[in-house]
């Protein structure tokens, strides 16, 4: 995804925000060492936005599992390879070492994990992530942490100093853990949603400002933590190239919500497709194969896997399908689809977390059930084959992207929120 993110960073740095409140400051963006997913694209855009606001930005990646000391180990190697476009002025890495198993991690973390308590497990890992090599030379003016579970690690980065912390929540994580636990095997008594939510909230109380990237999340956290400062800041999602092709595509990363949605598409929508074509991009292929090998094999030809230049995929699109039936929080892939300006065939849930009525978007066709989705898909393919799409740069979805989800829009909103600190 390097082509998209690098160009987005250049656009954001070239933007002319109303002020440059971070000129002369150093901001640490602290995040999980993830790649090839929506959260990674959010991190790339955060770094670009702070640079547009005048800051020097360092990226601090924390591994969300036990790992060898970076740069050794397969997971670190994969992360380095896939995150070259992150855009930071300097990069740091850390994670709980395997030697942590000799500590209380087995009791405080692993024992809870086997009951499904992923919230506590991630906190215990973060507590044991050492200060990254060379970080002692940095003087940090602001920490922008992603996900509550990086906060113990962020506090270590402060080294006893008081540094303002913006926490970007990226959904209520306890919801995600409940979804993931549906596909796993855990021993009783199982960790409940309320158990994991309380862990999440207790750490969030340490942040100075909580930034939320969708309407639902903002509303829920305001009710759960009324004593904290909250800001609704839609994520800056890197723009894709405008769509001028004829391909019918689905783009999805490997998470449980995407798996459930794609399973619905393959099992319920495909029988009504009448030979309509589609190509499925992203590492969701591995998730389907792992969870339902028979389903993967029966549709193997549709899966194209992860590609280095997803921008080229969007550029060749004549229509993007968003068969979303499960998931929480804003869908980053849906925002990417908005940015390319292509016609969309979608379920209403694809637009969750956005303050928008998708029925009013001229180039969006909404489907309420599988049979209707297939019919709209066939219609979209017929139009794509017949000729060039009509002005993706002037489409309703492209205009929505520019106004609410572009790097420039994010930088403006971030500058306003930062003023409260």
Automatic annotation (TrEMBL):
It comes from the Bacteria. Keywords: Transferase. Gene3D superfamilies: Glycogen Phosphorylase B (3.40.50.2000). GO terms for molecular function: glycosyltransferase activity. SUPFAM superfamilies: UDP-Glycosyltransferase/glycogen phosphorylase. Transmembrane segments: none annotated. One of its GO terms (biological process) is lipopolysaccharide biosynthetic process. This is Glycosyltransferase.
């Amino acid at each position: 995804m390097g082509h998209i993110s690098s160009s987005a960073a250049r656009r954001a740095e070239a933007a002319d925000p109303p002020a440059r409140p971070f000129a002369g400051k150093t901001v640490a963006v602290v995040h999980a060492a993830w790649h090839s997913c929506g959260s990674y694209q959010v991190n790339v855009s955060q770094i670009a936005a702070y640079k547009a606001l005048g800051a020097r930005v360092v990226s601090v990646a924390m591994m969300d599992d036990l790992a060898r000391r970076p740069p050794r180990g397969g997971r670190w190697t994969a992360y380095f390879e896939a995150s070259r476009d992150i855009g930071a002025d300097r990069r740091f890495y850390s994670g709980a070492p395997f030697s942590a198993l000799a500590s209380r991690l087995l009791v405080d973390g692993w024992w809870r994990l086997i009951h499904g308590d992923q919230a506590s497990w991630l906190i215990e890992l973060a507590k044991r992530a050492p200060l990254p090599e060379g970080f002692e030379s940095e003087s940090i003016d602001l920490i922008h942490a992603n996900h509550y579970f990086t906060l113990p690690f962020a506090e270590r980065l402060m080294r006893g100093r008081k540094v303002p912390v913006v926490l970007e929540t990226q959904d209520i994580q306890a919801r995600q853990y409940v979804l993931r636990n549906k596909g796993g095997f855990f021993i009783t008594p199982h960790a409940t949603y309320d158990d994991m939510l309380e862990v999440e909230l207790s750490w969030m109380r340490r942040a100075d400002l909580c930034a939320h990237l969708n309407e639902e999340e903002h509303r829920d956290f305001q009710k759960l933590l009324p004593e904290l400062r909250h800001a609704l800041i839609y994520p800056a999602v890197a723009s894709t190239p405008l769509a001028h092709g004829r391909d019918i595509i689905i783009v999805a990363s490997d998470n449980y919500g995407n798996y459930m949605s794609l399973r619905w598409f393959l099992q319920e929508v495909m029988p009504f497709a009448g030979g309509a074509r589609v190509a499925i991009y992203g590492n969701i292929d591995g998730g389907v194969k792992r969870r339902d090998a028979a389903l993967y094999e029966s549709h193997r030809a549709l899966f194209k896997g992860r590609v280095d230049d997803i921008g080229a995929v969007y550029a060749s699109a004549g229509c993007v399908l968003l068969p979303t039936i499960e998931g929480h929080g804003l869908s980053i892939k849906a925002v990417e689809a908005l940015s390319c300006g292509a016609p969309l065939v979608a379920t209403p849930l694809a637009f969750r977390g956005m303050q928008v009525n998708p029925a009013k978007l001229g180039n969006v066709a909404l489907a309420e059930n599988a049979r209707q989705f297939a019919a709209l898909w066939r219609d979209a393919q017929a139009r794509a084959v017949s000729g060039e799409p009509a002005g993706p740069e002037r489409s309703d979805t492209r205009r929505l992207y520019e106004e609410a989800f572009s790097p420039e829009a994010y930088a403006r909103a971030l500058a306003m929120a930062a003023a409260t600190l």
